Structure formats: C-alpha cells, structure tokens
Model the fold of this input.
Amino acid sequence: MSNSTSKTDISLIDALIPVFVLIGLLAYNVFIFGDDALSGSNQFMLLIGGAVAAVIGFKNKISFNEMMDHVQHNVMSTTGAILILLMVGALSGTWLVSGIIPAMIYYGLEILNPTIFLAATVLISSIISIATGSSWTTSATVGIALIGIGNALGIPMGMTAGAVLSGAYFGDKMSPLSDTTNLAPAMAGGELFSHIRYMTITTVPTYIVTLIVFVILGLTIDISGQTDIGSLQNEIQATFNINGWLFLVPLGVIFMIVKKTPPLIALLIGTLLGALFALIFQPSIVVGALDFNFVNAYKGILNAITVNTNVETANPILNELFSSSGMYGMLGTIWLILCAMVFGGFMDGIGALNKLSTSMLKVAKTTFGLFASTVGSCVALNLTASDQYLAIVVPGKMFSKAYREKGLAPENLSRTLEDSGTVTSVLIPWNTCGAYHSGVLGVPVASYFMYSIFNWLSPITTLVVAAIGYKIKKLQS
Done:
C-alpha cells in the first residue's frame, strides 16, 4: 500500500464532508423508506458516501488506485466476521429444528410469577432474546403476550413495555446470534466472543440494577388477576420433544467459548451438534409431512442451515418465534458490513480517518474523553440517521484508529458501540427501533422511556467504568 504525503495534508473540513453527506443521506433515506431502509437503500448510501470521499481524494491529488488499495484491505479484514455471521445463521437454524431454542423459551416461561411479574418479564425477555438473537422478534412475540398479561394484572403498559425492552436488549447484546453483537466487533476490528466477554463488565452490573429496580417496582404496585401461560407451554410441548438433554449443545458451546476455542470452530461444532440432536429428538420437525429417510432428513437439515425454516404450531405467537432464515438471513448484515468497509476504505485512503482521529485525540486528550466522544457520536447518529446499525457502523469506522493510537484494545470500542449505539435506539421515537417497538407493543416511547432502565443506564455505566479506569483493556504489544 503506497504512502502519499497528500494524505496528511487533508483539511478537517475535507475529512468531515463525506461524514456529513452520509449522515444527511441516511437520515433522508430512513425518513423515506422507514424500516425498509436496511433492505438495501442504506447500503447504497454508504457507497455514495465512499464516492464523495473519493472526490475529496481526487481534489487532494490522491490516486484512485491508492484509495482502492485501502478499500480492498478493509474488505479483506472482514473475512472472519462474515464467516462467523454465516455460521451464526446456520447455528440458529439447527438450534430451532432441534428444539434447543423452543426448550429455552419453554423453561423461560416457567419463571413467570405474578408476584414478581415485572422482574420475571425482564428475565423471560432476556432468555428469549439470547435464544433468538433478536430484540425485535422478542418484542413482537412474547413481548406482546406479556403486555397483555400485564394489562390484565392492572400494571401500567409503559412499565411492562420497559421491562420487556430491558430484557430484550440485554439478550440482543449478549447473544452470539445477534447481528449487532457481530457487527460491533467487525467495525472495531475485534473478535466476537472476546467482545461478548468484555461486555459483561458493563452489561452485568446494569442488568442487576435493572432487575433490582423492577423487583422494587413490583412490590410497590397492586397486582391482581391470573397469568395463563400454560397454553403456550402446552403448544410447545405438542410440537417439540422438550427435555433437558437439549441443553447439552448450548452448554458445550459455552464450554468451548470459555476455553477460548476459535469462534468458527465452536459455532461449526454447535451447528453440527444441533443437527444431530434434531435428528435424534425432532425427526418429524426435520422432515415435516414426508417419510423419515436419509434424503428427506438431509434436505431438512440443509434447509435449516441455509434458508428459511418455519415450524408451524396452532399458536400465531409461537409461529413468529419458531422461524429462522439460516445463513441466508445473515446476507443483509453482511451486505451492510461490506458497504461500510467500502466507505471506511475510501475515508482511510484519503487520510480522512487519520485526520478525524488526530483531531478527536486533540479534543479527547484522555481515555475517558475518547469513550465519551464515542457515546456522544452513537447517540447523535441514533437521533439523526435514525438507525442503530448506522450508529454502530459510522462511529466504529471513525474511532477505531483513535482507539488504537491510544493503545486501547478494539473490545473497548466495540463494547462502547453496543452500550450506546445498540441500546439507545429504542428510546428515540423516530428511530427505526423506537418506531418498531412502539408500534408492535402498542405503547408510545414516552410511556416506556423511563422504565427502559437497561437501555438508558447502559451508556451511563460505560462512562462510569471509563471514568474510574476499571479493566480498560490495552492492546497486546
């Protein structure tokens, strides 16, 4: 990769022009397309942002080949993250047809106790979100049911919605099946399981405080009525063979993660074990209405791994939960990552990222200042670009160089991106996440804002941890 002296001469205004153009285009795009913006139009805006950066590069006499060298390097650096995303999709498919995810949901519903309904709601939403890797799916399925139960018990809907979203976003952050959990380390240059382990430093204390607050709230309000979750559990049992043996697979994957097995190997083994358990415990799910033989079983397993899989039950709520898109479902996130890498590559090639990080380090002279700038940027992008993915992608590319120059490991950046970008999106009414969850749950953002304790407390916790310098991970020399 060639070095050009002109790259160091780029002005701060030139470095900021592509960023502001991109933010403006993304904000307008989300306004026009709404939730559909991630279907491809936002990805194209990232390419347009890269084109604007290229024009700035030509203005500063930087060759196109040199810029493309940086783009190529950027795209190549995502190879591991893309393979992990594909394997996560495969794992989610086999864990569905094997009954592992349904078993998690079944036993999660067991802890629903009317006397501690709000805390139980947080726990149930957490379990299901970890199992599915999606706060959106959790909200649209069990979340709706819990809102109905809470309403029947006389609990304010905003309070129940806040408990649902607190648990759903905890699970979304901590699940290796989550797209944002994969996206954050990909943008920061980190590794998935290391990112998840490092997030526990801020996420676990925030979650414990959230649970304590909801326990106290539950003890101070009058709860009356009955919770009928038996029908959901009966339907799960009628569809799947639910038993404790199914938990051997996730426990095995957790054991491999703890032993620092390479992520791709751990996920591949988890996928294959899920397929094996599907054949042992859920043969009728694998082949559907067809005869159980080698060809039909082979097709069923491969379909679960690669493309859409839907397990039909008599309950529409469960039908929404029991669906997976396999590896195919990860292509949208991969598309977003590739386009973000193109934008970041052009920005790096023209020296814009170097200029921005240098300028940021002048303003944020301390480690805390850098963390605070990252949090502020993520929240600002959630407010302006109205999308949590972009609140991870753009700051991730902008700040990665600054963190490296401070000698900070990429886990610091990826954790901060999630603590401030992922979780605050649902607190903004015009953000795609805020609009979605508010619409699905039937509760205005203003009603659940103060009760979404985990969501607004997470960025505060990450700033407190940075301020006291607790376990700030340094780059390995």
Q: What stands out?
A: The two ends are 23 Å apart (CA to CA). The CA atoms of residues 5 and 351 lie 10 Å apart. The longest strand covers residues 309-310. The first helix runs from residue 12 to 33.
